[in-house]
Specification:
heterodimer, A: 306 residues, alpha/beta, Rossmann fold, 8-stranded mixed β-sheet, 4-stranded antiparallel β-sheet, 11 helices, globular, B: 351 residues, ATP hydrolysis activity (chain A), nucleotide-binding (chain A), Oligopeptide transport system ATP-binding protein (chain A)
Amino acid sequence: MNHKLLEVKNLTQYFGSPSNPIKAVDGISFHIFEGETLGLVGESGSGKSTTGRSIIGLYNMTDGEVIFKGKNVHKIKSKKEQKQLKREMQMIFQDPYASLNPRMTAGEIISEAFDIHGLYKNKKERQERIVSLLEAVGLNREHMTRYPHEFSGGQRQRIGIARALSLNPSFIIADEPISALDVSIQAQVVNLLKELQEERNLTYLFIAHDLSMVKYISDRIAVMYRGKIVELGDAEEIYHHPIHPYTKSLLSAVPLPDPILERKRKRIPYVQEETSDFASMHEPLPNHFVYGTDEQLNKWLKQAQL
Amino acid sequence: MKKPLLEVKNLKINFKTYAGLVQAVRGVEFTLYEGETLAIVGESGSGKSVTSNAIMKLIPEPPGIYADGQILFEGKDLIPLSDKEMSKIRGNDIAMIFQDPMTALNPTIRVGKQIMEVILKHKKVSKQEAKERAIELLRQVGIPMPEKRFNQYPHEFSGGMRQRVVIAIALAADPKLLIADEPTTALDVTIQAQILELLKEIQKERKTSIIFITHDLGVVANVADRVAVMYAGQIVEYGTVNDIFYNPKHPYTWGLLGSMPDLNNKSDEKLFAIPGSPPDLTNPPKGDAFAPRNKYALAIDFEKEPPMFKVSETHYAKTWLLHEYAPKIDIPEPIVRRMERYKKEAELSES
């Protein structure tokens, strides 16, 4: 379990004019171990979705390296290796209404990728693969010939998941896969993602703003704020012993389904502290990283009584 | 004794569609008292937004049909009112906060003017007074530098600030009833917390009654005095916030509570998800609409619709499980465990 599947080094993604860029992701580094789920949380505009999209190559990175299974993704030149990489890394999108082609049947959507990669010998095998994928995500054979509009939101997201699984990937980036779904359906999809992870030994980068869901599904969590990872650590650690004031503020804002606790809750506002150029990632506790200057860190650690 | 401000009685709303008649709201009843917050919870398609739009008479006819029932606002039924009569109430006595602050404001009109519009329509004041009042409102909803902000366009505001403007517009005519339809769903958690605090402050100051529509039980626990849980166009459970969270009786409420992880859920335990998806309301199922998704369903659930059973003076639930002959079924384990854990946490924070 301690084998690094993915390593991101100094990932930087700027948009707009080079003279006055919007720094969507501003030099972040992290790694994901094989078989684990790394949760990436933050507010809208924090750069969490951009991070996912840059890793999989939907944007051309401004700077940095992505190393997958020991290989630098952006240095791969041969077509064959590139294809192989694309099989390994897949994505589940946020909006199940926008991410499925309305003019293709569920079967076509799922099989498109293995048509391209030529992963079957004959029609019969192709058919069987589609059915087994549909069944893996809790749908069945009859759904194969239906169009996206004939499905509910939760079912559509299942098709999106089946498509991501179609090439037998080892790593899946899930970009807010449940935020467009109803509460009871969210739980179904999260349970499904967990089952699939166990069955297929998948590694997830789970991007979301819903902290309680992220905490539930993740082994480790990275908190993003304005293009930087401000805190990264074990899920339990981050939730029970946050160090960075932004993490504390974010946690204090999560509403809990309990009226008595809610009445007592005190929200901690976050006052942004200027981080000077000397700010960097620190590791005050084993495997618990916090971004800030030395002074800030000392202060925060005192506040956290550590 | 508290005075009821709004009484909804046996409200039924249908929509004519090509696929047939959709029975979106099927006999909803509730009472809202002065100065309290009623949260209506449910999934999309459960009829919660249709119910709130119906109170504002915002259901387009056709395709909408007010098939039955009464909406008594201060004792007067709103359903037979003409558009003209209704426009005196809308914005004035009853105001609404919409879900998406990005689309609820007119992008081509300065925000100050959008607030003044409401004041000038409903109050006999001069333009200058209206402007002063609008600036004061912006200040009250926590917008810094209101004089400067008054002259800006919606695109110059962030999402949370825009929602504050929407709230300022809703408050402009000092309404007695505020309907908030998922007012924080489109916002980040930190902004959500601020908006919820703002709404509570406003309520405290102005004694406004609030109907709060949401699917987020965490938000409900935060804002509500009483809660109505809706499923398939009906209220299936109704009670004080403590009734619903500490003594839920309807299996659907259990499902909703269970499907929400909290920060203490062990990640190896599965979420208590509700299987399947909500029924098609062109053809509502016979008996209890929730029965096909309910693992505790009894034979009678597929035959006969359950009545509202009384649990206590404040607490009602629509499930056959409360019938005296029904087998005794306890609240599912994971939810009980969570309640106990919260209890301990609450005691801990006490001491």
